[in-house]
Amino acid sequence: MPLLLCCDDEQAPAERLLAALQVQPTPGQATGPDAADARWSLAVIERHRFPDGEWRLRLPAHLPPTVAIYRSLHQPNEKLVELLLAAPAARELGARRLWLVAPYLAYMRQDMAFVPGEVVSQRHVGRWLAAAFDGLITVDPHLHRVATLAEAVPLADAQALSAAPLLAQAIAARRPGALLLGPDEESAQWVHQAAAAAGMEAAVCRKVRRGDRDVQVELPALDVRGRAVVILDDMASTGRTVAQAAAGLLAAGAASVDVAVTHALFVSDALAVLRSAGVGEVWSADSVPHPSNAVSLAPLLAAALQRAVWGSVRTG
Ligand code: R5P
Q1: Measured from the CA of 212, which atom of ligand 1 is nearest?
Q2: What is the signed CA dihedral for 299, 235, 149, 47, rounded to 10 degrees?
Q3: Which of 46, 166, 190, 272 has the greatest CB tally within 10 Å of its CB?
């Protein structure tokens, strides 16, 4: 029986993934050590924090050959340490095939040295994870200067899923006929995918970033007067990117501006900044737990995990 592991603070999304795994089609061609019983179960990694801040982790004493750890890597620093402890321990306890299901994958934006000596964190975090796991499943990783997830996390089984089609459906149901707008060039990959999925019109802005909270967004040459516009991006962190785009759109005569993102990081005053800029509704996928979550990724993740574990899943 394959086992899904999670930490107590992510038991709710892990249970949603487990429920989605249970309704996935039974693997038709299951082979290998788990063929006798393909049903997943869930166990929680017990965590104790010592007074000095170190973790003590406790996994189930005996693990089956197939194990997946669910850990979404927002607020990533402590979680990366947990994973670097839990992954080798899982192998010692019996896991022979080990996946990481990380709906949000951190450190992907630091993908080049902008000044000499700057650490290219994407490369190093990617190598750590590739050394610890046999496979990775994530959603809309911020891949800008590399084409594939495997270039950032060098694993034979590195799956980058996209929430764009799911967000597109949610947007089309709530704002039919809206213009989809990406706030920067990097968002083109998600915006065009979403627009194609929902048959919507799409355009992309240009962005210049001067600092963490200092961005300038230039709108595309497009008449937005009277239009409902939905800004779509992979993530919102400080919210400044989306807020700049929204303010520009409303100044240019847009009837409404709503926001959809895969990863709702929304740090500190981000939501207040969005509201001040005139943003109406905010919708997100549930890779990062947030009141704006409107789309469940569990079915998408479950299908990918079954494919990864069983090679192929019978769909008929
Ligand atoms: C980077 O290009 C990403 O796609 C987002 O646009 C960016 O991370 C958003 O950051 P913030 O919300 O802090 O402006």
Answers
A1: 13
A2: -70
A3: 190
DSSP state for residue 115 in the 8-state scheme: S
Ligand 1 centroid, distance to 143 Cα (angstroms): 13
Best mutation site among 105, 185, 241 for ligand 1, i.e. most ligand atoms within 8 A of its Cβ?
A: 241
pTM here is 0.94
Amino acid, res. 95? A
Which atom from ligand 1 is nearest to the alpha carbon of 244? 14
**142-176: buried (b, 16+ CB within 10 Å) or exposed (e) per residue?**
bbbebeebbebbebebbbbbbbbbbbbebbbeebe
Taken in order 71, 12, 89, 156, is the CA torsion positive or negative?
A: negative
- The pLDDT score that the predictor gives to residue 315 is 41
Q: Which helix (H) or strand (E) holds 47?
A: strand 41-49
Structure tokens that stand for 119 in this block: 């650490």
What is the tens place of the pLDDT at every residue in 178-207?
A: 999 999 999 999 999 999 999 999 999 999
Atom index in ligand 1 nearest the CA of residue 234 equals 4
Rounded distance from Cα 240 to ligand 1 centre (Å): 8
282-294: string of b/e by CB count within 10 Å (b at 16+)? bbbbbbbebebbb
Residue 73 has pLDDT above 90, yes or no: yes
Q: How far apart are the first and last CA of the chain?
A: 23
Q: Which runs of E-coded beta strand occur in 189-285?
A: 201-204, 206-211, 214-218, 228-236, 256-264, 282-285
Maximum alpha-carbon separation in the chain: 62
pLDDT (average), residues 160-168: 97
